[in-house]
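Posting this for the archive.
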Amino acid sequence: MSPSDDNTAARVLPDFIQTINKYGKNCYLWMGPTPMVLIMHPDLIKEVLNKNYIYHRPNISPVLRNLVSGIFLCENDKWKMHRRLLNPAFFSEKLKLMEPAFMISCYEMVSKWEGRASREDYCEVDVWPDLQTMASDVISRAAFGSSYEDGRKIFELQTEQAMHVTDTLRQVYVPGWRFVPTKRNRRMHDIKNEVKAYVRTIIEKRLKAMSVGEAKNDDLLGILLQSNLQEIKKHGNKKVGMSIEEVIEECKVFYFAGQETVAVLLLWTMILLSKFHYWQAQAREEVLQVFGRDKKPHFEGLNDLKIVTMVLYESLRLYPPVPNLTRQTVEEIKLGHMTLPPGVMLSLPILLVHLDTEVWGAEATKFKPDRFSDGIMKATNGKHAFFPFGGGPRVCIGQNFALLEVKMAMAMILQRFSFELSPSYAHAPFTSVTTQPKYGAPLIIHKL
């Protein structure tokens, strides 16, 4: 299987593929006692994502709550409040303050690769763990600033927690099993408490510094705390803003969503460019035109990278970080020709919609970044058929953060290296919350 292959969907969403092949696009399947309807028509997808007040996120496994919480699980007024308080951290002027965090972490990664390739001007590197480390370092620095080392410890714990959660979810579900004091269950409980303790300590230190005017508030945590304090002051009521517990949960979301999304987008982009050398050369030429070979990339220049942006969009189309979104009806509703009672699950299979030949043409499974040369609306003919970050009011709040970080990393990589697939590379994408490489991503990296 190659990195741009129509069998990718069969590996990532095999149950959906089998059901669609048997019954067609307009079908449903049972998830235990709950019916799940597949929604693949762009107009219906747009309606579901826009009407978040009647299509909620379904309840998730209590085990998964060890990783995902905060704004992910909030609904209605509570979600509106959290979103309003989080928004300022992701404004463009705030993201510019985090440029040093992006730069330092990316530089550490490419310097490591340069060191490994110094003897023969090339080397084989499994880039997957390095991309994960880089993305986690960016989040640690961007989220906690001067408390970066404490942030790294939190990431290490969350990484271990993700492994335990993934392994647990792959086992046969037994009601109440999470309460049995197995070694893994005890460890997951301990990690949850350790992470809370670390984050609480960082928050309390920051609040103390803010109270005496010693905090810069130029990282995600500082901006969130400042936004929260302003909300409380505005209403004169501490019950209006977020509690410390809620701030802790949002910090955990920063880690999980920020690190996972960036790492997998960078990974599949590098793998695709390793196969399609023409587009790698085009992207590098653009980077060198904007920044030269030695100049450090900067945010203003990153916004001028049209070809790199096209490549990233095409990578997101073929390998969306999360291949499927789910929603659940909270009341009886009419969706298209269907009348759905409350409690019905709706599946929005992002990957399958991204590969739908009715939208993208006969070459929907092919890597063709130029389909985005005139933007997303032109590429989709105005249809809501490209939604790697979700859509509607609940669209991913950190998508601009993620795209800027990935552009920064790709610019620094393309300035210094060319790369190709190693003979040992085995293309085996699989879903572990996000779409990841089962056997890593060994590439041959050449110094320029």
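The domain at 8-447 is CATH 1.10.630.10 (Cytochrome p450). The mean pLDDT is 89.
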